[in-house]
Amino acid sequence: MHQHGYQWTGPKERFDQEALRRPPHPEPPPPGGKPELIQRYQEVAAEFPTSDLPPLETAHWLIKPRSLVRGTWSEAQEAAEWLGKRWAEHTDRFASAHDRDMTRLSRLVGSAAVQLAAGVDVSYGFYLERPAFLHLAVVTCSPNRSMPDLPCPLG
Q: For the residues 40-61, what does the mean pLDDT come to?
């Protein structure tokens, strides 16, 4: 088992586009269905696998392009430390003083290490100023505990 790290920072309103953050339904709308439904399905089917938007289900990062992988680790502690470094890079932009608390962030890193060692994915989000959003995730791979059939993005 190993872990892959993902990071997304962008406008909160783009993050809120939930339809583009979930994979398309396995069955497309029937032919002759409402044109707007068919068009929306085609849009989501084309955009989800290539979009850098964080998926609603953390394990779905594994079906995104391999270029979105920000790091790969065989040790859970190393992956958790990567999360801590990314948080530290953004703490001055956190919208909430609560999120800037380094003691809290240290506890989150420790908790992430425990979860990752158990094969559980971790995903965190923070509101930044302007309003923007920071999403950080570390996903277990080969196999993923919640979706074991998903392939490793690194092949």
A: 93
